[in-house]
Write a structure and sequence with these properties.
Mean pLDDT: 82
Helix content: 10-25%
Number of strands: 16
Number of helices: 2
Strand content: 25-35%
Order of helices and strands: HHEEEEEEEEEEEEEEEE
Low-confidence stretches: 1-29, 234-243
Distance between the termini: 53 Å
Shape: globular
């Protein structure tokens, strides 16, 4: 093996000659480093070009409604045309988002303080939770005519903000939390109380119905839990741990 790498060998076919091409090993390394550097510069320029092509996003306030009193809750109808607002003055107000003006003729006056609101999926009905020491209720209003179409009773709401919502097939149910730790379920059209669901140990302050599964809704409570409610059948749950 020592003969193959003999520096004194004048034969052009010697191992020493084959390991030393015209530019030398160092020259090859320099060329490769230059290629890598050039590729890096080109990648950086491409990233800069992409960054320059990205449009800048500027968000600013385009209008301010001077409401005058504290707003407790608000929502925009699904068609994007109307803003619905409830406030501490016991009123439900409607604003035209195209004309940027209040529709005073549709204003609703409640007898007790409204604390939260929820719109139906079609935007035609409005649920308003009413806080009252004597008779807390949930009122269902027609959004277009501002007429009261139903009342839902049974839940308790005196001190806290409690939320309700429509749900089920074609929004045929109303569900709400309550300060007595229960979840209440009514028939939307008749107002009949269908179920009082127990399980939480503190105030149930919020509920939400799953839009993809008409038989499934959830509730959140001050007991630091979220409960999933559904039809009385076994539900397949993927128990595979995440990777």
């Amino acid at each position: 093996m020592s003969d193959a790498v003999n520096d004194d060998d004048d034969d052009d076919g010697g191992m020493g000659t084959r390991l030393q091409p015209s530019g030398g090993i160092g020259a090859e390394e320099d060329d490769e480093e230059a290629d890598r550097s050039g590729a890096g510069d080109r990648a950086g320029e491409e990233e800069e070009d992409r960054g320059e092509r990205q449009p800048s996003v500027v968000i600013k306030c385009t209008h301010t409604f001077v409401h005058g009193v504290r707003v407790n809750d608000l929502a925009v109808t699904p068609d994007g045309k109307t803003l619905v607002v409830i406030c501490t003055e016991r009123k439900v107000r409607f604003y035209d988002l195209n004309k940027l003006s209040e529709m005073e003729e549709r204003q609703i006056v409640e007898n007790e303080t409204p604390t939260s609101l929820s719109l139906s999926a079609d935007g035609n009905r409005l649920l308003v939770n009413i806080s009252s020491a004597s008779q807390p209720q949930i009122h269902a209003w027609d959004v277009h005519s501002s007429t009261l179409v139903n009342r839902y009773c049974g839940q308790r709401q005196i001190r806290f903000v409690i939320r309700s919502c429509f749900g089920g097939h074609e929004d045929m149910f109303v569900v709400s939390g309550s300060e007595d730790n229960n979840v209440y379920l009514w028939n939307r059209h008749s107002g009949e109380l269908l179920a009082t669901l127990q399980g939480h140990t503190k105030t149930v302050n919020s509920v939400s119905w799953c839009p993809a599964h008409p038989a499934l809704f959830v509730s959140a409570s001050d007991d630091n839990t979220i409960r999933v409610w559904g039809a009385a059948r076994e539900v397949a749950v993927d128990s595979t741990p995440p990777p």
